[in-house]
Every structure is written in C-alpha cells, then in structure tokens.
Write a structure and sequence with these properties.
Length: about 325
Amino acid sequence: MKPIAMSRLRTPFFAAAILALAACQQEPPQALGTLEFDRITLPAPVSEKIVRIDVREGQQVAAGAPLMRLELTRTESQLAAAKAQAQQARDALQELKTGPRSEDIAQARANLAAAQAQARDAQAYYARLQPLGRQKLVAASDVDRARAAAGNAQAQVSAAEAALLELERGTRSEQIAQGESALAAAEAQAATQAVTLQKLDLVAPRAGRVDSVPYKLGDQAPVGAPLVVMLIGDAPYARVYVPEPIRADVQVGQAARVFVDGRDQALNGRVRMIRSEPSFTPYYALIGKDAARLSYLAEIQLDKSAAELPAGLPLRVEFAKGNEK
C-alpha cells in the first residue's frame, strides 16, 4: 500500500514540473506581412498615343528588352526644329568669331570719304556766306542754315569714322560670349528633345517580370502616368510589421525563418531593413500597455529558392535569437 501512495503523490508533482517547463519555453518572436518584390515604374515621358506593346503581364524580360512604343511624329518634329535652331546659333557664333568682311570695311571707308567731302563742301559754303552776312548782303537766316548744315556734315563724318573703327577692331569678346551661351542653350534643347525621343521606345531598365501594363494599344496616357510596372530582383522579400514588444530584439542582418501561406517548408532570410519609427503612432500608444500596439516596418531578404513565388502572399516571420546568425 505504501508504494501506491508514493506513486499517487509523484503524479501531480511530475505534471506540475512538465507545465513549468512548458511555460519556460517561449515562442520565437514573429511578425506578419506579405511577400513583395522591388518595383520599377516606367512613366510616360510625353502624352502620346501607344502604337505598339511588346510584352504581356507576367512575362519575364531581360535588361534592355523592348516593352512599348509611343507615337514619334511630334517629338521628331520638335527635335528637327531644335537642331535647326542650334545650327543657326552655331552659324551666328562663327560669324561673330570671323569678324567683319573686307567688303564691309571698304564700304565703311567709302562712306567716311563721302561724309568728309560733304563736310568740306558745307564748311566752304558757310565760310563764303559769313562775310556776306556781316555786310547785310544775305539774310541772317541763310547764314544760320549754312552753319547748321556744316555742323551736321561734320557729325556725319564722326559717325562714319566710328562705324569704320568698329569694323576694323572686330567683334567684342562680350558678343562672342553671348553667342556661345545662345549656342549652348540651343544645343541643350536639342539634346533634351533627343532624349525624349529615345524614351518613346520603352525598354526594360533591368531584368525582371512585367507586373502591370495599365494602358492598352491606342491609349494616350498623361505625362507621368505609369505605362509599365516591373518586378525586379532575383528573389522576393518579406515585408512585415514588427510588434513593439520584440522590436529591441530585431536587428539588421539577423537571420529569420519565413513561413508563406500555402507552403509547409520555411524559407530562410535575413533582415535587410527595419524602420526606427513606428508605422502608426496614436497619441495614447507611447507609454503603458498601449505601447504594445506600435509596429515597425521591416524587410527580410529571401534566398533564390523563393524566386518563383508570386507577390502578395501572406506570411509570418520568426526571428532568430540574438546569438544566432
């Protein structure tokens, strides 16, 4: 009878010990989120009609593969006009650097000689009229007109001399600088139009999968509208929200196990980013028990074994302990 009594006493003791050990084994810290890929959006550079679509949604493409083409006519005309303006500015600058032609200088010298001859004639007439005016043989108004004509002729000589001197000295450095600036502006405008024309043929900037083609053949999307959205990268990543109670134990580079909904085997990954600020901070959740409601956005990079999984799948992540790599 005594052994049976001891067995009955030990049974609740062992049960309590098992419960205590189970309580000591804590669940690994985990967070919930979705499977995501890095995205690239190709916007519309101009508002032009879509004339060709080379891909379909879900298609895998290599870097540089053609995706779509927009109508080229208007941009090609704008590029031709910009190139013509650049050529005009280039010719004008060359003319400034070359300076005046010898024929222009010869013409200026001839104009000066003619002005000098007229000035001598006007001055001689005024000299002859002065004595007659003093003797009251001619009206004073005639003498005044002769004096004015002589002064005007001398001014014409000064103007002709200045025009000839300007041509002989050549183009000013300031005018050449202005011509160079005008040429640079015209060439920059032409280069901008050339880049815009090149962008009308949309190509894949990186290898990836076409996720979305929002517009159809013949549509005319507004400037900046997404024409093609691509998913890039060798493998997806887990975007999760880390609860505040385990935030201090999650660090960049830490190992993690990712359990995707519908797949039994866990995926291996590492934390590549975690935000220092919570995603949403209500004013009452800064202290006390409500602080546990805070969550921090984190990203866990997965290995290539997850490359074929689609984006958007729900998942949960268990983080390794601090001493596990």
